[in-house]
Write a structure and sequence with these properties.
The protein is an alpha+beta fold and about 475 residues long. About 35% of the residues lie in helices and about 20% in strands. The two termini are about 25 Å apart. The relative contact order is 0.13. Keywords: ATP-binding, Ligase, Nucleotide-binding.
Amino acid sequence: MEEKDQSALGSSPGGDSERRLDDRERARRGQRAATIAAELSVQNVAAVALTWVDTSGITRTKGVPVRRLQEAATWGVGMSPVFDTFLLDDTIVSGRYAGGPVGDLRLHPVLSRLVPMAGMAGWAWAPAERFTQEGTEHPLDARGLLRREVERLAAQGWSIRTAFEVEWALSEGGGEDFTPACGGPAYGMTRIAELSDYLRDLLRALDATGVSVAQIHPEYAAGQMELSVAAEDPIGAADTLVLVRETIRSVSFQHDLVASFSPKVLADAVGNGQHVHMSLWRDDPVKGTAVNAMAGGDGPCGMTRAGEAFTAGILERLPALLALGSPSVASYLRLIPSHWAGVFACWGHENREAALRFVTGPQGLRSHAANFEVKCFDGAANPYLALAGLLAAGRAGLGAEAVLPEPVDVDPASLSEAERAERGITPLPSSLRESLAAFEADPVLREAFGDEVIDTVGVVRRGEIGLFDGVAPEEIAAATRWRH
C-alpha cells in the first residue's frame, strides 16, 4: 500500500496538491524509520539502497547505513539534480530547467515500501521521493508526477490497476559481449531445466520481498525470460517493477550470469519489451466494491462506455507516449512489424501485433481480469513517467468521451498500405526523433507534465539522438546492452 501522506498541503500553479514536509511530518517519518532501523539491525541488514529512475530509464541510487535511516527519513539524503539530464552513457546535457553543477535536492525513503533485498545479503531497498531542500516536492520527481495523475483520476471517482511484464536476456559471465545463458528452443521446457536452480532462487527471492509473481517462462530470443506480477495501483506497480528488476539483476550475479533489460540486446535478435497491463475501476455503492470498467458493458469486447473512452484516449496519443515508453534510440530497433512488438497504432481483441491488445480473460473471470496491454513499451522506460503519460492520455479520453475505431483482427503488416489506409491503421513512429516531436507537441501531456518535465525529457532524448547519430544498429545495441 502507498504510504499515507501526513504532510501539510499547499497549492501548485496547476491547482493540484503540492506536498510539503513540515515539522510534524518529518518527525512522523523519523519515528517510523527508527523502528524500522531497529528491525533491520536484528536481520543483519547493514545499509538501505534508495533508488530513483532517471529520465533515461536507468535506476540510480544512494545508500545509507541502517544507523542513519532515521536521519535520512527526516531530512533526506543530498543528491544533485543533474541526474535528470544524464544520458545512458553517463554524459550530461543541460536544458532550461535541469542540468549543470549547481543545486541540490533531498532523497527521502518511502518507508512503506522498504524491504530487505533477498538477492543482496545485508542490504535493504526503498524507492526514494525527491524533495527540494525547502521540503517541497521536486518538480522533476517522476514518482510525484505519477502520484498527481493518480489523484486526478481519483478526484473523478476512478482508480487504476496495472502491472508490468518484465523481459530480460541472460548472458554467461562478464564482458561486453552477449553469450546466451541457455540454448533451448523458444518457450521450451529445456530452458527451465538448464536454469532451474537460478529460476528457483529468483522466485524465492521475489517471494521473500513480498512480490506476487503470476507466472514465469522462457521467451522467444536466445537466453530470454519473462516474468509477470500481480496488478496493483500505478505507484505500487512502478515501485514493484524496480524491485523486481534489481532482484533479477542481483540473483543473476549470484549465479555468474548477467541480465540485460535493454530493448535490443543483439541487433538481429528479438528485443526485450516491458508491456503494461491496465484496467479502469470505479467504486459501486450498490455492490459495495470496485467494478472493472473494462468488462460488463455493451461496448467493444464488453467494455463499458468509460472503459472504451479511457482506452481510446491512450490509443490516440500512442505516438507521443512512445517518447516515454520506448525512449531510447535502441527502442526503434525493436519496433519491427510481425515481431509482436505492436508497431501499428491500432487495437484488437487478443491481437499481439496491435499496439493495444485487449484481454478479456477466461469466461467466469472477465469481470476481474479484463484489461488492455500496451505492447510497444520496453525496458528503457522510466516506469513512473510511462504510467503518468498513460494515465494522462486515458483521462483525456474520458473527458472527451472518446470512441475506439474498429478492432483489427489480423497482423496489420499483412495488409496492403491501401487496406491499412482504408481502415485507419497507421504505423507508430519509426524513430525517437519522430516520437519526441509528437510528445512535445501534445497539449494534454504538456498540461499534465508541465514545462519543466517536457523540456527535460526533450533535452535528454535529443542528447541520445545525437549520441547515436549515424551509428550502426550493431553498435547501438552494444552500447545500450548493459545500461538498463
